[in-house]
Amino acid sequence: MSLRSHQLRCIGSGERIAPETVSSDFRDPASGELYEVEYPWSESRGDAAATNKPNASALRHLWAERRDSTLPIDQSGVWRYRDLLPILNDDAHAITLREGNTPLYDLPRNAKALGLDFLLAKHQGMNPTGSFKDTGMTAALSVAAERGYQWVACASTGNTSAAMAAYAARAGLRAIVFIPEGKIAWGKLSQSMDYGAVTVQLKTDFDGCVKMLTDMVKKNPIYLLNSVNPYRLEGQKTPAIEICEQLDWQVPDHVIVPGGNLANGSALGKGFGELKHLGFIDRIPKISVIQAEGANPLFQWFTNAEKMLHPVTADTRATAIRIGNPASWRKAARIIEATGGWCEQASESEIALAKAQIGAEGIGCEPASAVTLAGLKKLLKSGHVQTGERVVLLLTGHTLKDPEYTIDFHKDLLATDIPEAAPFRKPPIVLEPNESAVMRALEAEMAVKV
Ligand code: F0G
Questions:
Q1: Which of UniProt's keywords are assigned here (predicted)?
Q2: Domain boundaries, given as residue ranges, for the chain
């Protein structure tokens, strides 16, 4: 078997299939379970994996060298690591917008306020279309293009659709997007139109959009690019590699991610797991997932220790994660349990405050990303994070994705019931063009203590 070949392994039965034979909804027809990509060197291959392992120190060196290359696939922060995601028959088929390569910022003020020595934010909102979805989309859409599909599609709360539309445009493929009417941020809606996708606003929620699309792909030659597509996760595992590389191959203790459809936490877990299996790192960070209180089926599953997930009718202003029936919940639950992480929820007020606190460090993110800081506070309180731990928050979307939310916060229209939020509010001040009026406003501002 060549290093390039891969199979799809059902996460329920463990049964392996050839990639070309997978059903159009990416589910095992018998069990309804999802697949994951398995390589000859994957840990799940048991003894076979030992003889096929790529060499960690050679790869570290190669990846560092590629930083100086002018080749688009070397400049991509996903394809630079292509040795660990050999999913294309020919690397020249990669569709890239130079995704990845996102900054790992420190958050000194938030760290101090929480009594932490080490708090970092991996800002995936600094990707080409402003969210972490680009890392997964470059991978899965390249597979679609290589396999000769003309049409790609997704159901989305806005970021997947923005990413898919952009990569489809680059590849010259036709794209169709299903989004819940009136329930996504304008910035995201505008992107899918800008990149030329057929944008369908369905009069239902995200979960209704998924149902409709799943039925459609079974009857038409349309390639499904939701995160049930296991190639999405191959791209989304690369920030785990990038974080380790940025920390000079030191491993953080805890990585905290927002949870919506619940693919991302498991993608990062797969990334860290593969790095450990191949000898790049000697341990895996705990991975915790934070949901919004109004869209919290995994949190409920976790705290009730039930074996079945009960879908909820989702409602949150963090529209990116307004998902009541998450497709990848089993994958996420498995990674949280395997790494010793935890699942928490954050209220609307806690999300709003956390977003303002991240913004006040000059970074900014969309509300769905801010659940990570809100969740961290709770994990510290409950003892699931210790103050000595090195924590990384995954910021998944750019602050400009949802400016309406930010403006509503500052104008105090979000009904935030946390007094600590008040000093962070900076509504626009309307004044006469008169210097003394401006000076009075500045004096009032000087009196505010943050
Ligand atoms: N953060 C942002 C900004 C998102 O857009 C999403 C998901 C998540 C977090 C949650 O990630 O689904 O892997 O648990 N957005 C999807 C979309 C569902 O359609 O854009 P997840």
A1: Pyridoxal phosphate
A2: 104-130+232-421
Q: How far is the CA of 261 from the centre of ligand 1 (A)?
A: 6
DSSP-derived 3-state class of residue 240: helix
125 lines ligand 1 (CB under 6 A): no
| Residue 157 in contact with ligand 1 by CB distance below 6 A | yes
CATH number of the 104-130+232-421 domain: 3.40.50.1100
How does residue 2 score in pLDDT terms, banded at 50, 70 and 90?
very low
Confidence of residue 304 (pLDDT cuts 50, 70, 90): confident
* Mean pLDDT computed over every residue of the chain: 95
* Residues in Cβ contact with 88 at an 8 Å cutoff, skipping those fewer than 6 apart: 94, 142, 143, 146
Ligand 1 contact, 158 CB (< 6 A): yes
**What does the angle CA 151 – CA 265 – CA 16 come to, to the nearest 5 degrees?**
65
Closest by alpha carbon to 334, among 322, 344, 343, 345?
343
Q: Work out the end-to-end distance of the chain between its first and last CA atoms, rounded to an integer number of angstroms.
A: 60
Atom of ligand 1 nearest to the CA of 227: 13
DSSP assignment string, 190-216: HHHHHTT-EEEEESS-HHHHHHHHHHH
Mutation choice for ligand 1 from 177, 255, 264, CB with most ligand atoms inside 8 A: 264
- Confidence class for position 430, pLDDT limits 50, 70, 90: very high
Mutate-to-test residue for ligand 1 from 127, 152, 321, 329, highest number of ligand atoms within 8 A of CB: 321
Q: What angle do CA 267, 269, 272 make, to 5 degrees?
A: 115
Judged against a pLDDT cut of 80, whether residue 66 lies above it is answered with yes
